[in-house]
């Protein structure tokens, strides 16, 4: 199974998977609860770690994930997520870092 297919099989039908270029992907999660957001990213990371490349079982995949919750505009969210992803890569691949915008639901 390929990397993108593994991610696609890990998201909901309402989610949107976009390939930004190279090995960078963007996933939009409409109407996801804050508590489920990081859990979903961890689940995707684990699915990638457990995926196998057909015909090449020695190849191990990983996903360095930078997640941003409820940030607008999207261009700002992408910029922060990209920085988080590179922070993950520099500290050891295959992890998830998230940024949560403070919202009215947080009491802020």
How would you describe the overall organization of this protein?
Helices cover 38% and strands 19% of the residues. The protein is built from three helices and four strands, in the order H-E-E-H-E-H-E. It has helices spanning 3-8, 34-50, 74-91; strands spanning 16-21, 24-28, 65-69, 96-100. Strand 3, helix 3 and strand 4 form a beta-alpha-beta unit. The N and C termini lie far apart (43 Å).
Gist of the model:
With 108 residues, this protein is an alpha+beta fold.
Task: Reconstruct the topology from this structure.
Elements: H1 3-8, E1 16-21, E2 24-28, H2 34-50, E3 65-69, H3 74-91, E4 96-100
Parallel strand pairs: 3-4
Antiparallel strand pairs: 1-2
**Radius of gyration over alpha carbons?**
14 Å
What is the strand arrangement across the widest sheet? 1-2
Name the helix and strand elements from N-terminus to C-terminus, one letter apiece: HEEHEHE
Report on the biggest sheet: 2 strands, antiparallel
Shape: globular
What's the helix count? 3
Q: In oligomeric terms, what are we looking at? A: single chain
Provide the structure class: alpha+beta
Mean pLDDT: 89
Strand content: 15-25%
Tally of DSSP β-strands: 4
**Relative helix content:** 25-40%
Short descriptors:
single chain, about 110 residues, alpha+beta, two-stranded parallel sheet
């Amino acid at each position: 199974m390929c990397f993108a297919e593994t991610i696609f099989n890990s998201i909901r039908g309402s989610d949107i998977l976009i390939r930004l270029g190279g090995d960078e992907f963007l996933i939009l999660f409409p109407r996801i609860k804050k508590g489920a957001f990081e859990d979903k990213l961890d689940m995707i990371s684990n699915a990638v770690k457990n995926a196998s490349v057909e015909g090449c079982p020695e190849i191990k995949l990983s996903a360095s994930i930078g997640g941003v919750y409820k940030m607008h505009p999207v261009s700002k969210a992408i910029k922060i997520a990209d920085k988080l992803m590179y922070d993950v890569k520099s500290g050891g691949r295959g992890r998830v870092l998230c940024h949560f915008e403070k919202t009215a639901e947080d009491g802020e």
